[in-house]
Amino acid sequence: MFDNLKVGILGGGQLGAMLLRYAIDFGLDVSVLDKDPKAPCSRYSSSFTVGDPMKYEDVISFGRQLDIITIEKEAVNVEALRTLGKMGVKIYPSPDTLEIIQDKFLQKQFLIEHKIPVVKGWLVQDKSELENHTEKLPACLKKCTDGYDGKGVLMLQTVEDLSKAFDSPCVLEEIVDIKKEVSVIVSRNEAGIIECYDPVMMIFDKERMLLDFQICPADIDESVATYVCTIATKVAEAIKLTGIMAVEMFIASNGKIYVNELAPRPHNSGHHTIEASQTSQFEQQLRVILGLPMGKAKMTQPSVMVNILEPAVHRRQVIMEALKTILCTDDVHLHWYGKTPGSMGRKMGHVTITDKKIEDAISKSIMIRHLLKENHDTESSNNNG
Ligand code: ADP
Q1: Which atom belonging to ligand 1 lies closest to the Cα atom of 177?
Q2: Cα 153 to ligand 1 centre (Å)
Q3: Which residues of the chain, if any, have pLDDT below 70?
Q4: What is the C-alpha to C-alpha distance for residues 77 and 191, in angstroms, rounded to an integer?
Q5: Burial class (CB in 10 A: 0-12, 13-18, 19+), 363
Q6: Residue 299 per-residue DSSP state
Q7: pLDDT score, position 236
Q8: Would you state the pLDDT for residue 248?
Q9: Distance in Å, CA 171 to ligand 1 centroid
């Protein structure tokens, strides 16, 4: 069906590898560009190029032989994609969408212009400029670019904390009293048709800023679920999305809802769609970029997702034993990313737990999280000691 079509992915991490899984189902010829010669996709793609998706020359030389380019991370060179677009390569999502998303302040401005609710925030160019904003403390400081998994986020409680601040352009945000964090995956095709996935709820270990569980359906009223899906749809339309996007939102304890962040690509908060939706987010991304009809996003069963983090070297075997126990449970699906061992705490994989009732999926996931956490906690104490 797509015998002569050449598709490229910028980024070779686990999201790209999951995309490749579905590319096999469509018989696609997929090339991948990533800096790391051992990135997960290096094992599975028909052609793997070692190069930097942020470098103009690397993206041009990778992309000029391709028909379609998509992404699995947003840190890519937008100018190179614009040039390739002019050369006839189809780019999903568009370079304009990527430009807005790459900078948290531009993202916020864009959302405000489109009357989408966001947390109030101010642009600060560097650390010294924060001195002019001390009356806003306590506040949340976020790097405009290059933040991920909470690594570019810092809570500034008092003036004393300013010394720890990032010395680069940042958004200083009001602190929200968050009751729940939800994410909605939304897909939109070139004709403007939209499919919206059921909202997912994220539960964090607040001390370590690590995700503990991701639950679908989210524990929110139906009216709130409808509202957050309406917001996600509005964002997809405003940004003229072609592809798939995660819209992360905060539900504050006063009931207000804010869009926190957009990711115009398959996203962690959509991992469960592999087992628990009619069409996974990865298949949907491919359907959109190939111009095929979109699949239904409808949830087929409740699910919980638990991350597996890299243990300390001497605990790796223990994690493997824990996984053997975990896999004895019914309806537990392991996704091991095939990353080369690196630093402790990195995401090495995840498990998705499904069941007919969300309560049963949650009970199983608490046991699983406990088995995994026991290992992580032991590692931390070992490391400190
Ligand atoms: P990243 O892109 O690195 O994941 P986020 O913007 O999602 O960064 O922030 C990481 C976490 O920090 C959020 O999931 C939330 O728990 C917390 N957080 C972010 N912004 C605020 C805020 N304005 N008020 C309170 N907590 C926040």
Answers
A1: 25
A2: 7
A3: 374-385
A4: 26
A5: middle
A6: B
A7: 98
A8: 98
A9: 12
